[in-house]
UniProtKB/TrEMBL annotation:
Protein name: NAD-dependent epimerase/dehydratase domain-containing protein
Taxonomic lineage of the native organism: Bacteria, Candidatus Liptoniibacteriota
InterPro entries: Epimerase_deHydtase, NAD(P)-bd_dom_sf
Family designation: Belongs to the NAD(P)-dependent epimerase/dehydratase family.
Organism encoding this protein: Candidatus Liptonbacteria bacterium GWB1_49_6
Domain NAD-dependent epimerase/dehydratase: 3-129
Length: 151
């Protein structure tokens, strides 16, 4: 079984990838490697471990189309973070990307059995998280209703 981890070059994503690999899963890591976190390079702690590394931006539908091929589950951990955030980029990365994930999976009838969504550090922030969280839940509910998936 192959699992996709978005944001897999980050702290939580890389540890999740390590744990899944130890459990015998094949792991594909998708990350955009953007500053201020990665500066365009794969961190040493994900290299040479047997992960399939894929560079791409979760805000792009074509990236999801490539990344979701052949996977059975998704850990959607990608999140935008910055000291002085661009709120439109924050919303696109942390919310629109979730809608794109479901759009591609449903419209292409991909055999994805499980999607795990995670929060970002903004859960401790000053209110933007609530909007993102509710928007992600709404996107999931709308797609489930559209294709008659159980809750």
């Amino acid at each position: 079984m192959k699992i996709l981890i978005t944001g897999g070059a980050g702290f939580i994503g890389s540890h999740t990838a390590d744990a899944l690999l130890k459990l015998g899963y094949k792991v594909r890591i998708l990350d955009n490697l953007e500053p201020p976190v990665h500066n365009g390079r794969w961190p040493k702690y994900v290299l040479g471990k047997g992960f399939e590394l894929m560079r791409g931006d979760v805000r792009e539908k074509r990236v999801w189309e490539r990344a979701l091929k052949g996977v059975s589950a998704v850990y959607h951990l990608a999140a935008y973070q910055d000291q002085r955030p661009d709120f439109s980029k924050f919303f696109e990365t942390n919310t629109v990307s979730t809608a794109l994930l479901y759009e591609v999976a449903v419209l292409k009838r991909l055999p994805i059995k499980k999607v795990i969504l995670a929060s970002s550090q903004f859960v401790y922030g000053d209110g933007e998280y609530r909007c993102r969280h509710n928007a992600c839940e709404l996107a999931v509910r709308l797609w489930r209703r559209r294709v008659s998936l159980p809750p």
